Amino acid sequence: MDYDDRISSWLEGVATLIRDIDVRSMASAAEDLIRVRNANGTMFVAGNGGSASTANHLALDLQKAGISPAGVRPKVISLSDNIGLITAWSNDESFDVVFEKQLEALAEEGDSLLVISVSGSSPNLVRAVSKARDIGMTTVGFLGKDGGVCRDLLDHPIILPSWDYGWVESGHVVLHHILTNIFHESEH
Length: 188
What we know:
Blueprint: H1 3-19, H2 23-38, E1 42-47, H3 50-65, E2 75-78, H4 83-92, H5 100-106, E3 112-117, H6 123-135, E4 138-144, E5 156-160, H7 165-185
Parallel strand pairs: 1-2, 1-3, 3-4, 4-5
Helix pairs in contact: 1-7, 3-7, 5-6
C-alpha cells in the first residue's frame, strides 16, 4: 500500500466515525452545559495524555472563542493543566486522585465536569466523575471504544465507538469545536 492509499484509508475511517456521532446526545450535553454557563457555574475539563491536551485546548477555546453574542463568558478550568499540583497529589497520595482532589477544592453543586478519554476507564477520571456526581455537578464525557466504566456514570456519554485512538482523539477535537461553536452562538 502506498502512502496515498494509507492516507485515504485513514481519512475515510475517521470520517465514518465522525459522521456516526450521536447528534442528539451531543445536543443534550450542550444544552446542559449552556445551562451551567448561564447560571454562572464553572465547567471543569479533564483527560490524560493526548486527551489532557484536548482538555487544555477545550478550556482555552471555550474561554476565548466561546463567548456568547451577548458577551457571556464561560468559566472553564482544565484539571489537566496544573502539572505541579498533579505531580504533588501523585507523589503524596496516588495518580488516581489528581482530578478528584481538585474538584473537592474548587467545584460546587451546579457546576459541570467534562472528561475526555479514549478508554473511559482511567481510574482518575472514574473517581473524578464519581466525585462530581456526589457534589451535584452535570457530567459529560467524550469517550471512545465502548465508553468504558465512565459510560454508565455520566449524565451525557458521547461515544466514538472505535479502538483506534487516533480516530477517537481526532473525533474528540471535532466535538470540542462543535461545543465551542454552540457556546459562541448561543444566547441562552
